[in-house]
Amino acid sequence: MSPRSVRRAIFNLVVLLVPLNLLAIVVQFFVLGSDAIPLADIVLLTSIVGTPFMLGGQFIGARQVATKDRLVEMATTDMLTRLPNRRAFMERARSALSRHKGVMLLLDADHFKDINDNYGHATGDHCLQVMADHLQGLLRSNDVIGRVGGEEFAIFLPNVTMETARQIGQRISMGLLVETGTGASLQVTVSVGAATVGPHMTLDEALRDADIALYRAKTAGRARIEIAA
Known about the structure:
The chain folds into 2 domains: 3-75, no CATH class; 86-227, Reverse transcriptase/Diguanylate cyclase domain (Alpha-Beta Plaits, 2-Layer Sandwich).
């Protein structure tokens, strides 16, 4: 438990014990009589008896919050890459689209089935993890990224020109070297489709246009970016 959590627990305990002690004092004076038990003994006894129950309540409450946070994380995070999953990406991108214009990128790792077939799914998973870290390193804090399919990623770049998005897409398409752990290195390239997101455009329309451009990049030889018409 962190020092901050300990301080918060102590503060909460004090806050809870004050009204409990006041209640005990009221009972002492108005029910049992003012001379039944010394005031100091009331406070001590109430604190001793009440503290374990209150600490237990705080523990249970903290566990419930932690469990809720964990469930939210599981529902919105791709457990392999730690990126937002498709559901979370759609929600965040739709929110960003309502405030900004920009460019939608749809990415697909090239020949990924061959990697899984020739090197195994564990190596394929490692490639996706390395790709996710690489992509995050290329983006700004306000860009929206997610893993939306097996080896497919989507990125919304708010408030950028298509020329800037093209440069980012070209860097992404070059891919990266991935160490397999067996002494071999894989060159993983990426096909990218880009589409301008204009005013009043829906997320589905933006993804559709980017997907059409991605298909063109695949059929034109891969490891490239294509722009939607």
